[in-house]
Amino acid sequence: MNRMTNWCNRIVINLICGLALLTACQESDQHGSRTAVLPYYQEATFTPHWLEAGNSVLDSFHRIPPFQLINQQGEMVSETTFAGKIYVADFFFTTCPGICPRMTANMSVLQDAFLEDDDVLLLSHSVTPTRDSVPVLKAYAEDKGVLANKWHLVTGAQQVIYELGRKAYFVEEDLGIDKALDEFLHTENFVLIDKSRHIRGIYNGLNKTAIQQLIADIKTLKKEG
C-alpha cells in the first residue's frame, strides 16, 4: 500500500511540475523574449533580424534619419541630441482625452526607472504641433513631472513629425494602408532605439507588462556597450 501511495504521489508531483512549466512557458511567450540580445527591425511588419553588433549588414540597415524639432524648453532637438544614447520614442498630444494620459504615465515609469542613467532618454512627439506650442508643452511637462534633458516633448512641422512616425519609427498598425500626409496619426506604441539609431523593439504603451519588458530590454541593450 505504501509503495502504491508513493507511486501516486510521484505522479501528482510530476503533473504539478509539468503544469507549472507549461504556465511559465506561456507567460514567457506573452511577455516577450527574455533573450540576452535584442533583434533589429527595419520595416513596418517588425520582422526580427538577429544580427550581432558590428555586423556589416548594419551599415545599410534602417536607422532613424536626421531630424530637427523643438522641445518644451524651446531648444533644438536633433539626432545628435541622442547620439550615443538609448531612447524610447512615442507620439501623443497634450489635449488627448483617451490613451495619451496613460501613455504619459507609463513614460513617467520609464523616467523613474532610468532617472540617474544619462545613457537613456525619452522622446515624445506631438501629433498636433500647431496647437502644442513650446509654452503649451512646457506647461504640460510641468504638470506631468517631465524632467528636461531626460524627457523631450517636441513640436515642429507636422509633415516632418508624421513622416518620422510612419516612415522612420513605423508606429502605426495599419500595415499596407497608404495614408495622406495630413491624415491623423494616433498610436499607443513605444519604440526602442539603440545608440546607433536602430529600432530594437516596439511595445504597447498602455500595457504595464509591456512597460516592464521594455525596462528589461533597455537593460539588455546597455550591455551591448
Walk me through this protein's architecture.
The N terminus is likely disordered. Helix 3 links the parallel strand 4 and strand 5. The chain folds into two domains: 31 residues; 185 residues, Glutaredoxin. It has a seven-stranded mixed beta sheet, sandwiched between helices. The chain is α/β, with parallel strands linked by helices and 225 residues long. 36% of the residues lie in helices and 16% in strands.
Distance between the termini: 62 Å
Number of helices: 5
SSE arrangement, N to C: HEEEHEHEHEEH
Coarse structural class: alpha/beta
> What general form does the structure show?
globular
- Helix content estimate: 25-40%
CATH topology grouping of the largest domain: Glutaredoxin
Q: Which oligomeric state applies? A: single chain
Radius of gyration: 21 Å
What fraction of the residues are assigned to beta strands by DSSP?
Answer: 15-25%
Question: Which spans have pLDDT < 50 for at least 5 consecutive residues?
Answer: 1-33
Strand segment tally? 7
Query: How confident is the prediction overall: mean pLDDT?
Result: 86
Topology of helices and strands:
Layout: H1 2-31, E1 68-71, E2 76-78, E3 86-92, H2 100-113, E4 120-126, H3 134-144, E5 151-155, H4 158-168, E6 189-193, E7 199-204, H5 208-222
